């Protein structure tokens, strides 16, 4: 990926250009020290003078009023804020008329920024003050005051905090008074420019020490560049938060959000005083110190999937190469390509007006449909459909181009979703809330409605990354999430009446990804490459989890890597320095998942015997129990030496009725409550009581016995025996109360128990023969 | 000879017998003086012209020398700046080379990883074939 730059032969401005700003994807305004504001139309290649300012106005910073204001979208921006060296703040209309001028600071006003919803404007001055203004240019408050000039300022994604420079330090100050101010030394020279991405919440800074740095919003350093030859004069995040651009003297760099650089250009521009991305993220403009205005767009972006390699060769042209036979197809588009995604055998490309869907089988005839807004910021694909984040809404389309659903949630800012905060599977959409990061909303993909009772999943602490598994039935849909403590959790999406049980399956997990063809999870855990061959095993047999994990050393990935894809048996990881590293995962687990999902248990056993791998056997054991396939489970447990479990499975197999069988399988997986409910539903009350006696949960056993008025004496007898064995006195008040009226007679109790079993056997015999056979098969 | 009464009256006759107020000698001398004066003025004029031309010439020369001097200084500066330019270009190219080197390193790592995967896979295939 690189930037293709273009410069006119002769500069249009006579003096240095100080600031630029896009109105639409093809129209740019630029201000210069020659007091002129120029309008650049990229479609017609026209440049016209909008207005000639008064001679005492030397513009310094320009910022257009944001287009999206509280969900409503304006087609074009109408007004911009212009700050000048005489200490004034001007609000200028699109036609160049100065609507309002206010005396803002003593000395020059060095920066002026609107917040994301357009309700406030902040200005930073040479006098070291930060002032907040209303939309109409009325002074609201002075946020901060310091002894050194504030060179640059940026709003937080939630518009509730402000980042500004203070000499060599960066300061994050909340708007609310008396809240904690975050301040840290960021550079060895004066910091000249900062930017804060709304999408990924990362901070970018560049200064006179000739370095640029990437920080998270807590002020932790994520990346620091090597020193350049000249001070960094401008930095700018791309709107989708995946890339940023950095400008210096005769230097323009395109970097990944993790800091490493995609490409370096050396245009003769003088210092790049300001950089600005167009709203769709395809164009970049730079204000040059020698009077030029620099335009750049991204080319040679690449997408890979299985044997296809796609390159964006020009703005409107893509080249598809099939690596297997070197066949090359060229795809032409009517407009500029804004976003593209290649996965699950489909290529989805969006331009400013349309969406093209290609199938990997046929590159000639795309399916084309019109977009609603045309500012797609994210494409997420699943096997059956894909999702577009278009402006302030999320749309799910089928690969046939049919709009399936559009999930909505009040108060959510869909336009700042990124690939880490949204996940799509064939039946479910998971979206992390943008305001409260602990909350994950779950939607049905087919209808766009919230799943179940509509309550979102609420985690203990902030969630960093969410991912839905891609295969299997919708009832078994699981969501994996990494929280701020870097712990990996797994929970099921549809709870089906059960309580939301969430299991921690890993800690110190940097990144993770689900496989596209089987429910296998891979990640980097504590510097080791880890594959959870069957993560859902925590729902059936928690003890098996460590045995179903495959790990290997991941020093080749360096820290902290990013998972790019996990397709088939190949994992692609991007290292911190930007290089892609592939690694292969054993194909057996995928095969095993395939066999078990189609109930080919014999084949599953055969593959385990062939591979002779304990992890694989553990996997099979879990899969078999989950599918209530007891004989396979028995073999698998025997293979991994879990004799106690084999015994229990044998015991379950011998149980006379289907219901108690089911209950004991649930009990095997540790779901006591569900097991009890199953038994009570089947009217096997004694069995339910027995479960609790065996688990020493005496209170519940007695409660049940009293409630159903049966076997109270049995419970008391067992309790008595238990106390005797341990030489203890009865202290439980309820037991004392009931033991008074009941006489314990072991013979009678034994007889009663015998009777219960006989009754159960009888009932099982009466029920259809077929069903009992299916249970025991 | 007796005194000419006319001469006493201050009147004289010249050779052409025209009545004159001035003595013929004086008159002649006056004329001579006049002529000489004219001659002198002429000569002075000529001299001035010549000197003027000379000054012009010298001035021109001076100008030319000046421009040549400026040219020389300019050339010298240009030489210096070319050196600087070359340095800058060198710097730029170095930066570009460093960038390409980084890219190369990335590709090398990717290639190595892929080679490893290939080796693993062929090993797997061999194992698979042997066991069957």
Automatic annotation (TrEMBL), chain A:
Domain annotation IFT80 second beta-propeller: ranges: 300-588
Compartments where located: Cytoplasm, Cytoskeleton, Cilium axoneme; Cytoplasm, Cytoskeleton, Cilium basal body
BP GO terms, sorted: cilium assembly; convergent extension; intracellular protein localization; retina morphogenesis in camera-type eye
UniProt key word Cytoplasm: yes
Endpoints of the signal sequence: none
Domain IFT80/172/WDR35 TPR: 616-762
Keyword terms, alphabetized: Cell projection, Cilium, Cytoplasm, Cytoskeleton, Flagellum, Repeat, WD repeat
Record has Signal as a keyword: no
Family annotation (Pfam families): Beta-prop_IFT80_2nd (PF23335), TPR_IFT80_172 (PF23387), WD40 (PF00400)
WD repeats: 102-134, 184-216
Summary of the function given for this chain in its UniProt record: Component of the intraflagellar transport (IFT) complex B, which is essential for the development and maintenance of motile and sensory cilia.
PANTHER family attached to this UniProt entry: INTRAFLAGELLAR TRANSPORT PROTEIN 80 HOMOLOG, OUTER SEGMENT 5
Record text on subunit structure and interactions: Component of the IFT complex B, at least composed of IFT20, IFT22, IFT25, IFT27, IFT46, IFT52, TRAF3IP1/IFT54, IFT57, IFT74, IFT80, IFT81, and IFT88. Interacts with IFT88. Interacts with IFT57 and IFT70B.
Protein name according to UniProt: Intraflagellar transport protein 80 homolog
Source organism of this protein record: Danio rerio (Zebrafish)
């Amino acid at each position: 990926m690189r930037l293709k730059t273009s410069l006119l032969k002769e500069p249009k401005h006579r003096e240095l250009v100080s600031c630029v700003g896009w109105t639409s994807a093809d129209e740019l305004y630029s201000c210069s020290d020659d007091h002129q504001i120029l309008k650049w139309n990229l479609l017609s290649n026209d440049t016209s003078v909008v207005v000639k300012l008064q001679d005492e106005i030397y513009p310094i910073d320009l910022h257009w009023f944001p287009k999206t204001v509280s969900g409503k979208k304006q087609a074009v921006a109408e007004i911009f804020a212009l700050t000048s060296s005489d200490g004034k703040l001007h609000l200028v209309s699109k036609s160049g008329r100065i609507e309002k001028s206010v005396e803002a600071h003593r000395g020059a006003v060095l920066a002026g920024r609107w917040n994301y919803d357009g309700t406030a404007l902040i200005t930073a001055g040479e006098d070291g003050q930060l002032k907040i203004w209303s939309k109409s240019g009325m002074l609201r408050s002075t946020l901060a005051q310091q002894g050194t000039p504030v060179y640059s300022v940026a709003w937080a994604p939630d518009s509730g905090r402000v980042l500004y420079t203070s000499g060599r330090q960066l300061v994050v100050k909340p708007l609310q008074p008396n809240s904690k101010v975050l301040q840290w030394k960021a550079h060895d020279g004066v910091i000249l420019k900062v930017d804060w991405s709304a999408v990924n919440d990362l901070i970018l800074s560049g200064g006179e020490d000739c370095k640029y740095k990437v920080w998270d919003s807590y002020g932790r350093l994520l990346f620091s560049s090597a020193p350049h030859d000249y001070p960094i004069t401008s930095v700018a995040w791309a709107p989708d938060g995946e890339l940023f651009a950095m400008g210096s003297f005769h230097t323009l760099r395109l970097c990944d959000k993790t800091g490493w650089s995609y490409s370096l250009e050396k245009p003769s521009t003088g210092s790049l005083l300001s950089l600005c991305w167009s709203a769709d993220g395809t164009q970049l403009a730079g204000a040059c110190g020698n009077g030029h205005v620099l335009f750049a767009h991204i080319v040679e972006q690449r997408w890979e999937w299985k044997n296809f390699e796609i390159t964006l060769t020009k703005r409107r042209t893509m080249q598809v190469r099939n690596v297997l036979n070197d066949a090359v197809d060229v795809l032409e588009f009517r407009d500029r390509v804004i976003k593209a995604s290649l996965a699950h055998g489909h290529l989805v490309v969006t331009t400013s007006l349309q969406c093209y869907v290609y199938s990997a089988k046929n590159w000639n005839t795309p399916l084309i449909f019109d977009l609603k807004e045309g500012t797609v910021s994210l494409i997420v694909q699943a096997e059956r459909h894909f999702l577009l984040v278009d402006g302030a809404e999320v749309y799910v389309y089928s690969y046939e181009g049919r709009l399936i659903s559009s999930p909505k949630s009040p108060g959510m800012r869909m336009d700042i979703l990124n690939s880490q905060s949204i996940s799509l599977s064939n039946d479910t959409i998971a979206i992390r809330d943008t305001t409260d990061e602990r909350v994950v909303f779950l939607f049905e993909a087919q209808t766009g409605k919230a799943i179940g009772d509509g309550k979102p999943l609420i985690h203990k602490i902030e969630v960093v990354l969410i991912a839905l598994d891609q295969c299997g039935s919708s009832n078994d849909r699981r969501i994996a999430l990494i929280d701020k403590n870097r712990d990996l959790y797994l929970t099921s999406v549809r709870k089906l009446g059960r309580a939301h049980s969430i299991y921690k399956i890993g800690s110190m997990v940097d990144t993770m990804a689900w496989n596209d063809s089987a429910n296998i999870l891979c990640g980097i855990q504590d510097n080791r490459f880890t594959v959870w061959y069957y993560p859902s095993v925590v729902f059936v047999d928690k003890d098996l989890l460590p045995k179903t994990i495959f790990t290997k050393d991941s020093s080749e990935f360096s820290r902290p890597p990013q998972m790019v894809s996990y397709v088939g048996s190949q994992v692609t990881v991007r290292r911190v320095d930007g290089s892609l590293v592939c690694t292969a995962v054993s194909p057996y687990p995928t095969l095993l998942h395939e066999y078990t999902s189609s109930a080919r248990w014999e084949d599953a056993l055969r593959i385990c015997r062939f591979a002779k791998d304990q992890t694989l056997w553990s996997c099979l054991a879990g899969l078999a129990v989950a599918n209530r396939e007891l004989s396979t489970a028995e073999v698998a447990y025997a293979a991994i030496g879990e004799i106690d479990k084999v015994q229990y499975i044998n015991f379950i197999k011998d149980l006379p009725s289907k219901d108690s069988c089911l209950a004991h399988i649930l009990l095997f997986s540790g779901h006591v409550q569900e097991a009890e409910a199953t038994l009570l539903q089947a009217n096997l009350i004694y069995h339910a009581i027995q479960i609790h006696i065996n688990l020493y949960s005496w209170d519940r056993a007695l409660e049940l016995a009293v409630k159903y008025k049966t076997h109270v004496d049995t419970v008391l007898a067992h309790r008595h025996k238990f106390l005797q064995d341990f030489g203890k006195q009865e202290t439980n008040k309820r037991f004392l109360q009931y033991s008074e009226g009941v006489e314990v007679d072991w013979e009678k109790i034994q007889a009663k128990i015998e009777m219960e079993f006989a009754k159960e056997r009888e009932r099982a015999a009466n029920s259809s023969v077929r069903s009992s056979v299916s249970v025991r098969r | 000879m007796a005194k000419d009464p006319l001469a006493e009256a201050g009147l004289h006759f010249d050779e052409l017998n025209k009545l004159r107020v001035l003595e013929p000698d004086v008159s002649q001398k006056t004329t001579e003086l006049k002529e000489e004066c004219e001659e002198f003025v002429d000569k002075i004029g000529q001299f001035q012209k010549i000197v003027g031309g000379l000054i012009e010439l010298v001035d021109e020369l001076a100008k030319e020398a000046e421009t040549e001097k400026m040219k020389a200084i300019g050339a010298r500066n240009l030489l210096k700046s070319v050196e600087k330019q070359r340095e800058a270009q060198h710097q730029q190219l170095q930066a570009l080379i460093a960038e390409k080197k980084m890219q190369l390193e990335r590709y090398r790592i990717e290639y190595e990883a892929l080679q490893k995967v290939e080796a693993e896979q062929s090993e797997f295939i061999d194992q698979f074939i042997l066991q069957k």
